[in-house]
Amino acid sequence: MSEFWLISAPGDKENLQALERMNTVTSKSNLSYNTKFAIPDFKVGTLDSLVGLSDELGKLDTFAESLIKRMAQSVVEVMEDAKGKVQENLLASGVDLTSFVTHFEWDMAKYPAKQPLVTVVDTLTKQLAQIETDLKSRTAAYNTLKTNLENLEKKSMGNLFTRTLSNIVSKEDFVLDSEYLITLLVIVPKPNYAQWQKTYESLSDMVVPRSTKLIAEDNEGGLFTVTLFRKVIDDFKTKAKENKFTVREFSYDEKEIKREREEMTRLLSDKKQQYGPLLRWLKVNFSEAFIAWIHIKALRVFVESVLRYGLPVNFQAVLLQPHKKSSTKRLREVLNSVFKHLDEVAAASILDASVEIPGLQLNNQDYFPYVYFHIDLSLLD
Predict the structure, then answer these.
(1) pLDDT of 42-83, one tens digit each?
(2) Is this prediction's pTM over 0.70?
(3) What's the pLDDT at 344?
């Protein structure tokens, strides 16, 4: 499973024994794989400052999770033709996300633990904000390019009534630069081909004999040329419509056709040129954002443990990876049983839904006897 529970309990003898009991029960029952989660000794500051940081870290945690989710989705969208390889590009420090979480070590160089906690949090906040700003600008530019290209491609993939004709017609299909003559394009349903060949010359006066030619087809019909005198255009269109032939409005403009073709070539080239740098940026900054997110989780465990268990700082953090989704309820029961002494009333109420305590949102599992945080990597699948 790509789900983790990050918990902490006081580091005194009684609770270290409780942690051992937890490890024994969860191992024997095959409920979870547990490892210690190392968190450095930070400068605590005042308890008032920790209360403020608790709220700030909660918001930052939500923001970081949302950001990496968006970045993962951007990788999926950019790798549209190779979606099977997306997970290969969602790494943290060059390893898969599960390995990074289970072998987490605090990055002292990036986030010095000797700095005040508020400074560490500020560093993380600014880092993630900059990544989000860059993500918006880079993906917006790429998506605009992609949308323009898709719109052009759609124009060339529709039926004969709607699609662009620049890649179908050629100069030789038209009478050009004539004061009197004009070549029209007419869409004829397939069942009516014989009728068209038999009647097009008589649909109006002044239609040039034997001037029709089939130049393109789709599943429903064909695109025919016909040459006639300009002054009978309106009459010809009316008679054609009466016979279920549709004159497609089109004026051959060599410069416009060339411009459209060049635009398609340019957009394809630009997309290809932007693909590599954008994917590399996403890979590097997804890793940075994910690493920052797990550091935020560690900070939250530290702050909440100090607020819950008091000073001096003495707690043990543990990372649990549930083996099966179906076993999470049983795992929760084991933890609440092992650590119920930390908060007898709250633990009992969690186990017994009929017990209600004002101020505790137990039905949403927002409160536990121990410090608890959730890390869900399935959001990136």
Answers:
(1) 988 888 899 999 999 999 999 999 999 999 999 999 988 776
(2) yes
(3) 63
Residue found by looking up tokens 């004002």 in the block: 358
Pairing of strands 32-36, 95-96: unpaired
CB 4 within 8 A of CB 101: yes
Which among 245, 241, 237, 218 has a CA at the least distance from the CA of 160?
218
Give CA–CA dist 3/376, Å, rounded.
5
d(CA 293, CA 127): 11
Residue with tokens 């994910």, as numbered in its chain: 290
Distance CA 79, CA 267 (A): 17
Phi, psi at residue 226, to the nearest 5°? -155, 140
| pLDDT tens-digit map of 176-196 | 989 999 999 999 999 999 999
Quote the CA–CA distance of 184 and 194 in Å, as a whole number: 19
Q: Is 103 helix (H, G, I), strand (E, B) or coil?
A: coil
What is the Cα–Cα distance from 164 to 154, expressed in whole angstroms?
Answer: 9
Tokens of 283: 């890979």
